[in-house]
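Fold this sequence, please.
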Amino acid sequence: MITLDEITKSYATADIETRALDAVSLEVAEGEFVAVMGPSGCGKSTLLNVLGLLDRPSGGSYRLAGIEMTGLSPARLARLRGEHIAFVFQNFNLIDDLTVAENVEVSLLYRHGEAATKDRVAEVLDQVGLGHRAHHRPQQLSGGQQQRVAIARALAGKPSLILADEPTGNLDSANGEQVIELLQQVAAAGTTVIMVTHSHRDAAAAQRIVQMLDGRIVGETQL
């Protein structure tokens, strides 16, 4: 599914060059649930941005679903991102003025016909246990429910890869457990999940933990 080979990412100013990723090599299988851990500033977010085609690496090779990503045009990368990748963020990123169903539907408006969109929205909201909340606004939901809506939105386009950035960071332990269980179910159904987290408990729910330090992968633990 994913093959990174000697990926580097550098940021340069007039005075200094910072290497956020330093010769990162990693393989992730289809349907695998991988947690990425490490201290702040170790390169986790940069890695997620490269994987999500939001940031270009400075060097190395990145193959996603058998396609080499480096060197592709911005338009081609945007197309591949829309076809293969979805994101789940710590802050949910829901639109307050839209209903739950409309928040999910937004991700599909440019990809499907209206009838197919509404059917898919209902399907994924049922999948995350929130079909009965379709016409509520985000502010009428708990934090855990809002994150489940965000996961439904990510699932709506049937991505092959979900990138989750601290998905339980704003949740209490009970709601966090529900979100992690949902991500486990998503991976078990065949979608690859890569999650950045500071939580050892959340990471333990993954199939593999990748440890980062100073822009490098310094260890992996199979669970």
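The CA atoms of residues 56 and 72 lie 10 Å apart. Residues 173-188 form the longest helix (16 residues).
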